[in-house]
Amino acid sequence: xxxxxxxxxxxxxxxxxxxxxxxxxxxxxxxxxxxxxxxxxxxxxxxxxxxxxxxxxxxxxxxxxxxxxxxxxxxxxxxxxxxxxxxxxxxxxxxxxxxxxxxxxxxxxxxxxxxxxxxxxxxxxxxxxxxxxxxxxxxxxxxxxxxxxxxxxxxxxxxxxxxxxxxxxxxxxxxxxxxxxxxxxxxxxxxxxxxxxxxxxxxxxxxxxxxxxxxxxxxxxxxxxxxxxxxxxxxxxxxxxxxxxxxxxxxxxxxxxxxxxxxxxxxxxxxxxxxxxxxxxxxxxxxxxxxxxxxxxxxxxxxxxxxxxxxxxxxxxxxxxxxxxxxxxxxxxxxxxxxxxxxxxxxxxxxxxxxxxxxxxxxxxxxxxxxxxxxxxxxxxxxxxxxxxxxxxxxxxxxxxxxxxx
Length: 406
Description:
Layout: E1 2-9, E2 15-22, H1 25-34, E3 38-44, H2 45-54, H3 65-80, H4 85-95, H5 99-113, H6 118-123, H7 131-143, H8 146-203, H9 209-223, H10 225-243, H11 246-256, H12 263-284, H13 288-298, H14 302-316, H15 321-328, H16 333-345, H17 348-368, H18 370-405
């Protein structure tokens, strides 16, 4: 007996979907006809998944954080309403707007039909649902609080989504200005400076150093542009390849935290993510050492992950959370005090959530003031460009005009 997914119209014209076991598709059609259903589509489950996968190409949009937030919210509502997990997942697979998410959920539903648990089925798609996501679902299954698990995940993912949106909004203006500056430099070197170069050559006068530098740069842009393009592509390729190595990613993640202006924002964002995910894991009932393992992956920073794993190792040796948190040198004194009080009162999860809110408020403030901090730097860069052009282009023109008048 095989399993077939069907879409059909009821006698009243409503759309109905479901799964039936039968020998073949014609048998499914007969069963539906007996229920006064008009079949629209009958597909064997394995063929259905293959059909969806065949429609996915490298141009198909990837699964976004928005898709995971919507999935978590919908699963919370369905689980709270008492709808069976298989029916909930199958229904979301049919209604989601993402082809990749639909294919993943269809496969999850097929595994549920074969008797697997939801967490093990989700774990098969660990590139979509991370280990932290799967672990929270696993705890929710074991405790009978699957709806609470998805509610916590939705809150966590929504906060992550909000932070990413704030970072994009704060960096949009500086990025636009930098792109405009680079565009202006290309236009000046390719079209504007060569016009002045021809004029200077016609006078035959000795040019200032800054003018000679500008003319040489423009000549390089025009005559050696292919070498410049190949060099840029090669540098980007080697840099990306190096950052994908374990050592390269570790050094870059450590460097990001020390960058001027934005380094503190990166650090507080990671600490907020650490506190939020650690609190969520403890509330769900995950053992502290296992939670630290999962949180080390959730922070998505190799340098910070190493410190968190060191905390886990020291806790396994018998040290307290407050002690290892202090020795890690990751947290501010206020947060260390909150962790200490939480450990003494047995409310570590609650106070970690408060610590997360503390860091998130600081990040919100820093992001709102980021543009005002970067603006002076951008103005200085533009002023420097104007000064270079003034010294390189207009100074020799003034000298020539003075020589003509003299």
